[in-house]
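Sequence and fold:
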Amino acid sequence: MAKTYKPGETAPRSGQYGIVGTRGGNTGTERTVVRGETMPPTPKAGQTYRLVDPTKNGSGRP
């Protein structure tokens, strides 16, 4: 199972993060987050994020 991230945590990679429901299911909603930024708040309490589609263009790499 892929790692999940809570709102307020720092994004380890740039890309599309899917919102995971409180029971672990996909909600169908995604947010674009840049590496180093904090994860935005989720629509409902208890939801988390999972990296769905990492950025492939090389931006954001050291």
In short: Residues 1-26 form one domain. DSSP finds no helices and four strands in the chain. The chain has a mean pLDDT of 90.
